[in-house]
Design brief:
two-stranded antiparallel sheet, 14-stranded antiparallel β-barrel, Porin, elongated
Length: 448
């Protein structure tokens, strides 16, 4: 693996005693909500801020409405449940290959992740400018499907050895992590109109086996071409920006609109070996998609507020995600995801001066077409429906505790094994995914 500067990554990760782990998936590979209050509200936050962490992500203009200087610390314990099922009918790859029907399922060994975040907000009294910063684990995916050899009835043919030892891919393992530092400024144009901007620096880490975006090699001359692994993690550094506006046309009614640019990254680069152990070069670019967020928030009573967001995530325009299928040289061009819409709904009820209850729902389209299921075994980002709940409690006059839970209901995506010659009749690939998560956060207020 080539040496490269990773000081930014070390700085980000050293901000926490916990290290960021792969997110695995919610809306595509992006967390449906950022921070415990926002997650409990289904991720709705483009029009009204509940915390700095989510405001800087969904709409930096909304930080100006937060009423105190503050520091926020939170961590999420995220538990996905992933299963890979495969079926190959006898003779699917030619006469007698395989000799009998093969089918089986494999659960992923990567079961949990810890996702930290840290944020702060500062505003001089009577100033129209609000400053904010947030460090967040934002996106990722990861699986670990162990190989099953030799292929036999009851075993999963998808994770048998690559040919000629088997009919599959061998062990399938991936781990992608993305952490951002966002620096934001909000300006009050007038009492009910704000604009905000945020500069975003990001670090991502990635490893994958097999690395199907590499050109397969036949260095040993057995006429069977195989894909290498990425031989460990590499890091990529990137950046982008976010801009937004918040207006309050009527008392209690807030409207928000924001645009987040892509996060443009340099390329991951690895130095795996071919079938005979000779070194080779491998690189891949994976950016983070642009997003457009629009939202409305309305306070029905002094204690009851409802909000809704409509979000567009542009996977189809993002390097690494937009192209799919095989290149003429046998390498997979990319994940081949489509752009998606997300709807986030939340309701917040303050039941006393010290306690607030939040409920939410989030729906995000599945970005993976069934024709691309096979290419996305390392990244089964297919869940769509999320139910969320949470509570906020004032511990003292300057400290609040927020807790959120969400469940992403089980979804499955299925297609066929696909080779450079096309889909293989008599085969089936099925990815299944569900998720549960708990996030706990503390907010320390100054000047309340």
């Amino acid at each position: 693996m080539r040496p490269r500067p990773v000081l930014v990554a070390f700085f980000i990760l050293s901000c926490f005693s916990l290290r960021a782990s792969p997110v695995h998936a919610t809306n595509g590979h992006v967390l449906h909500g950022i921070g415990p209050a926002n997650q409990a509200l289904g991720g709705a936050g483009a029009a009204f801020a509940t915390d700095v962490t989510s405001a800087l992500h969904w709409n930096p203009a909304t930080t100006g409405a937060l009423d105190t200087n503050r520091i926020e610390i939170s961590a999420e314990y995220f538990v996905p449940d992933r299963t890979l099922r495969g079926r190959v009918a006898s003779g699917a790859f030619g006469p007698g290959v395989p000799a009998t029907d093969l089918s089986g399922s494999t659960g992923s060994d990567v079961n949990a992740a810890t996702l930290p975040s840290l944020a702060a907000l500062y505003r001089v009294a009577d100033s129209p400018v609000t400053w904010s910063v947030a460090v967040s684990a934002l996106a990722g995916f990861g699986v670990e499907y162990d190989a099953e050899n030799p292929p036999a009835p009851g075993s999963n043919p998808l994770v048998s050895s690559q040919p000629p030892g088997g009919l599959g891919l061998g062990k399938v393992k991936s781990d992608y992590q993305l952490v951002t530092i966002s620096l934001g400024a909000t300006y009050d144009i007038r009492p009910r109109v704000r604009i905000g901007v945020a500069a975003v620096t990001a670090v991502s880490r990635f490893k994958i086996t097999p690395a199907a975006f590499a050109v397969p090699d036949d260095a040993n001359g057995d006429t069977f071409f195989t894909y290498p692994g990425s031989n460990g993690f590499d890091e990529a550094v990137g950046g982008g920006f976010r801009v937004g506006v918040q207006i309050e046309p009527l008392d209690g009614l807030h409207l928000g609109l924001a645009y987040a640019s892509p996060l443009w990254f340099d390329a991951f680069a690895w130095d795996p070996v071919d079938e005979l152990g000779a070194p080779r070069d491998l690189d891949f670019r994976l950016d983070f998609p642009a997003q457009v967020n629009a939202g409305v928030s309305y306070r029905l009573t002094p204690a009851l507020r409802v909000e809704a967001d409509l979000r567009w995530i542009d996977y189809a325009g993002t390097r690494g995600f937009r192209r799919g299928g095989y290149a003429p040289n046998g390498a997979v061009r990319g994940f081949g995801w489509r752009s998606i819409f997300v709807v986030a709904l939340g309701i917040e009820h303050r039941i006393s001066d010290a306690a607030t209850v939040r409920l939410g729902y989030n729906f995000g389209e599945n970005p993976i077409p069934s024709t691309r299921t096979f290419y996305n075994l390392p990244a089964p980002a297919i869940v769509q429906h999320h139910l969320t709940a949470g509570v906020g409690v004032a511990l003292t006059s300057f400290a609040d505790l927020d807790v959120a839970y969400y469940h992403a209901f089980a979804e499955s995506d299925h297609g066929r094994i696909v080779t450079p010659s096309g889909p293989v009749a008599g085969t089936e690939v099925r990815s299944e995914l569900s998720e549960n998560s708990v996030r706990v956060g503390l907010t320390f207020h100054f000047g309340r």
